[in-house]
Automatic annotation (TrEMBL):
Keywords: Disulfide bond, Extracellular matrix, Glycoprotein, Leucine-rich repeat, Proteoglycan, Repeat, Secreted, Signal. Pfam families: LRR_8 (PF13855), LRRNT (PF01462). It comes from Nothobranchius furzeri (Turquoise killifish). GO terms for cellular component: extracellular space. Residues 66-98 form the LRRNT domain. SMART domains: LRR_TYP, LRRNT. It is found in: Secreted, Extracellular space, Extracellular matrix. The gene is BGNB. InterPro entries: Leu-rich_rpt, Leu-rich_rpt_typical-subtyp, LRR_dom_sf, LRRNT, SLRP, SLRP_I_decor/aspor/byglycan. Residues 1-22 form the signal peptide. It comes from the Eukaryota. May be involved in collagen fiber assembly. Disulfide bonds join 67-73, 71-80, 325-358. Belongs to the small leucine-rich proteoglycan (SLRP) family. SLRP class I subfamily. The lineage of its organism: Eukaryota, Metazoa, Chordata, Craniata, Vertebrata. This is Biglycan.
Length: 372
């Protein structure tokens, strides 16, 4: 009798509950799906399974790539920076495109550290303590194009870099020597940044850059006393700022006919031999600031495409009417849009206006040798 009453009561309650109108589907997050499943009888099923045990087999675990402990892995980017790591972590996903290991305490790159990372595009080991690299470390990295190796303790260029490499940043190490063939097989290399290494001119062996077709090279903040003579002739940009170069001699630049930008600022240059700059027929920008020049270089009027020249912070005491512009009409193919002469012992009011007849805008001239 008791079960029959319970059934009748349940039937009456069911008939009294009004039908509810369906709401539009709105996906908000994982817990919304969990709550929906609990509301639709999932709670009773879960409780029964906990007490009696479920006979339904568990679904197989999806094959999710591992992520090294403490690292962040997302969209094929693995970020393991600033973790105090002393070695390259294990379990790096094989589909990784960018691996960030900067700002750690890694001392060595071992043979199998990057095994299986055939899709890696860029690697950053910047600001570690790396002084040793196994000759086969980079062997698996067949597609790597960018390597950021600055602020480490390397004394030489790592061996057997990937042939696919396009950009190498290895400044602020302890490199004193670049051996012949150090970059052999790197025909795709476009950019090398190797400033702030204690390398002298004698540290570049003949053939050190053989086979390279670089566009960009920076050897700033080193110990160079002259312009290196065996750099790639394909260069568009060459930066030798913050060295100890004392002069530019006639043949120093004869190899670099494709240069668009030349940086020689913050050196000890007192003299630029006449006609030495004429080897650079395509030059657009010339940095000679913070040197010891006493006059404007004599080749400037004949540089048809030169547009920017930095001469500030020298010892120039006089500027002649023909120091920048050619005398003949139409000989200058591009007007200047920047000439800096401030912090020189030259009186700007003594410079004739015709001196800057090939300057596009008067605001492009910077003297600054006066007080307002």
């Amino acid at each position: 009798m008791l079960p029959r009453c319970s059934c009748l009561l349940l039937l009456c309650v069911t008939q009294l509950v009004p039908p509810s109108s369906a709401l539009p589907f709105e996906q908000r997050g994982f817990w919304d799906f969990a709550l929906d499943s609990l509301e639709n009888g999932g709670m009773m099923t879960m409780m029964r399974d906990q007490i009696e045990g479920s006979g339904t087999p568990e679904p197989p675990t999806p094959d999710v790539p591992m992520c090294p402990f403490g690292c962040h892995c997302q969209l094929r980017v693995v970020q393991c920076s600033d973790l105090g790591l002393t070695e390259v972590p294990k379990n790096i996903p094989s589909d990784t495109k960018f691996l960030d290991l900067q700002n750690n305490r890694i001392t060595e790159l071992k043979e199998n550290d990057f095994r299986g990372l055939t899709n890696l595009y860029a690697l950053s080991v910047r600001n570690n303590k790396i002084s040793k690299v196994h000759p086969k470390t980079f062997a698996p990295l067949k597609r790597m194009q960018k390597l950021y190796f600055s602020k480490n303790l390397m004394s030489t260029i790592p061996k057997n870099l990937p042939a696919s490499l396009v950009e190498l940043r290895i400044h602020e190490n302890r490199i004193k020597k670049v051996a012949a063939g150090a970059f052999s097989g790197l025909g795709n290399m476009n950019c090398i940044e190797m400033g702030a290494n204690p390398i002298q001119n004698s540290g570049f062996e003949p053939g050190a850059f053989k086979g390279l077709r670089l566009n960009f090279l920076r050897i700033s903040d080193a110990k160079l006393t002259g312009v290196p003579k065996d750099l790639p002739d394909s260069l568009h940009e060459l930066h030798l700022d913050h060295n100890q170069i004392q002069a530019v001699e006639l043949e120093d630049l004869s190899r670099y006919k494709n240069l668009y930008r030349l940086g020689l600022g913050f050196n000890h240059i007192r003299n630029i031999e006449q006609s030495s700059l004429l080897y650079l027929p395509r030059l657009r920008e010339l940095h000679l600031d913070n040197n010891r020049l006493t006059h404007v270089p004599q080749d400037l009027p004949n540089m048809k495409y030169l547009q920017v020249v930095y001469l500030h912070s020298n010892n120039i005491s006089q500027v002649g009417v023909d120091d920048f512009c050619p005398r003949g009409f139409g000989m200058k193919k591009a007007f200047y849009n920047g000439i800096s002469l401030f912090e020189n012992p030259v009186n700007y009011w003594e410079v004739q206006p015709a001196t800057f007849r090939c300057v596009g805008d008067r605001f492009a001239i910077q003297f600054g040798n006066y007080k307002k």
